[in-house]
């Protein structure tokens, strides 16, 4: 089936699903495969649940007119998304980066929503499946779209930008993450820079860039740069006011100064906030609306959330961790004013041969912090941190917390998502 004919059927359906447990009436089911499942086997169930069509790529599952047989369902999902994007021509801002891309996506979307009807990536659906699913949610009412793109291997951003074809780009930063997949820090820079490469080839493209980031400046040649940062005279200049623990900052533009009190934890979120200010100002969102959007945004999903349990105050940042974000979180926590401070850290995953050395650097930083209590979870930390409490996994941490029952602490909880430290607030 040609993409034009498939698209006409998609237009009749109005929406797609890849989950046979969630089948909006009249939708199109696309049978994807994973390591432990074959979506083709659920096509009949999807039709029974209300889907109009089931797209499959194994002939034995195509059992009637409601089935559409294709060569590769994942490829069809991506082609359909790209074709849909081209038909609507909605302006798209593509966002990637090692740290802060989800928070920045949320902030940018909140700011733009003050003036425009905005579609944006839900949660962290930022991969080869999430990006096309996001694009297929576009409709004629949307005036702009903000699409987050993630990667842990070379070439993945290139593949995603070819699907989304963004008009504008924003790389939050580059840092040491997924080194096992990228091979090196240089591999991280090259892959994130594939967003710039696409826009450069497209021509007359605009990027929003952190002015003081030397790595990004080195690969931004040939692009129109809208600059934000802490230096004076930029498109948007900003200054940290306080972070105890919530970020307060002010931004300056055309001799006017605008103070903002946020619900974001961490001075490292200043750049993410300034990025959203720059995008908002570029697209003529009123300064007062920009400030309101940032002051009312509430972080969720274990991303720098402040939780008051009644016994302790928790800074929960357990969604992800890499050397750059871990060091930034610890540096910020060291500056937080609190009578008793404690950290619970989990291993940073996917660092390859650099893993032990990067964990050793974190432990070295901890040595100079003088926190009241340090609990480290995972084999990588255990191998380099004999001076601190260390545990094999989150269950062992739970047992220790059940016995000691800490009270009156401000506690930073941070680790890679697979360490499951997000389970700990219930024990604190």
Automatic annotation (TrEMBL):
Which pathway is recorded for this entry? Cell wall biogenesis; peptidoglycan biosynthesis
Name used for this protein in its record: UDP-N-acetylmuramoyl-tripeptide--D-alanyl-D-alanine ligase
The chain positions of domain Mur ligase central read 95-279
The protein's matches in InterPro entries, at most eight in alphabetical order, are given as: Folylpolyglutamate_synth_CS, Mur-like_cat_sf, Mur_ligase_C, Mur_ligase_C_dom_sf, Mur_ligase_cen, Mur_ligase_N, MurCDEF_CellWall_CoF430Synth, MurE/MurF_N
Start and end residues of each Mur ligase N-terminal catalytic domain: 16-84
Q: What class of enzyme is it?
A: ligase
The main location is cytoplasm
User: Does the entry feature the keyword Cytoplasm, yes or no?
Assistant: yes
């Amino acid at each position: 089936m040609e993409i034009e004919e498939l698209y006409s059927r998609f237009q009749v359906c109005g929406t797609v699903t890849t989950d046979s447990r969630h089948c909006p009436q009249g939708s199109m089911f696309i049978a994807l495969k994973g390591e432990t499942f074959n979506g083709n086997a659920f096509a009949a169930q999807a039709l029974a649940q209300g889907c109009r069509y089931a797209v499959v790529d194994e002939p034995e599952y195509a059992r009637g007119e409601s089935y559409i047989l294709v060569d590769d369902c994942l490829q069809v999902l991506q082609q359909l998304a790209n074709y849909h994007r081209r038909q609507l021509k909605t302006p798209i801002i593509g966002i990637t980066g090692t740290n802060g891309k989800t928070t920045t996506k949320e902030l940018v979307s909140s700011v733009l929503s003050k003036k425009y009807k905005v579609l944006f990536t839900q949660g962290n659906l930022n991969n080869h499946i999430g990006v096309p699913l996001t694009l297929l949610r576009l409709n004629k009412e949307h005036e702009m779209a903000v699409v987050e793109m993630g990667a842990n291997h070379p070439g993945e951003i290139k593949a995603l930008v070819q699907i989304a074809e963004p008009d504008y780009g924003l790389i939050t930063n580059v840092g040491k993450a997924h080194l096992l997949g990228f091979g090196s820090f240089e591999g991280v820079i090259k892959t994130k820079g594939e967003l710039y490469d696409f826009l450069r080839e497209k021509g007359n493209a605009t990027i929003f860039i952190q002015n003081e980031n030397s790595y990004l400046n080195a690969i931004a040649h040939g692009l129109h740069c809208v600059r934000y940062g802490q230096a004076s005279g930029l498109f948007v200049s900003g200054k940290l006011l306080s972070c105890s623990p919530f970020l307060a900052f002010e931004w300056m533009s055309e001799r006017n100064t605008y103070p903002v009190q946020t619900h974001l934890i961490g001075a490292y979120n200043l750049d993410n906030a300034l990025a959203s200010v720059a995008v908002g100002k570029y697209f003529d969102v009123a300064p007062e609306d920009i400030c309101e959007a940032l002051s009312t945004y509430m972080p969720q999903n274990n991303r720098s959330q402040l939780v008051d349990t009644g016994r302790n105050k928790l800074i929960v940042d357990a969604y992800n961790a890499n050397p750059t974000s871990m060091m930034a979180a610890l540096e910020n926590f060291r500056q937080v004013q609190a009578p008793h401070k404690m950290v619970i850290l989990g291993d940073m995953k996917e660092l390859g041969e650099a893993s032990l050395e990067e964990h050793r650097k974190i432990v070295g930083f901890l040595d100079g912090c003088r926190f009241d209590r340090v609990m480290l979870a995972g084999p990588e930390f255990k191998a380099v941190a004999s001076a601190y409490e260390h545990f094999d996994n989150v269950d062992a941490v739970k047992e220790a917390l059940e016995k000691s029952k800490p009270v009156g602490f401000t506690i930073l909880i941070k680790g890679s998502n697979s360490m499951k430290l997000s389970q700990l607030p219930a024990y604190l």
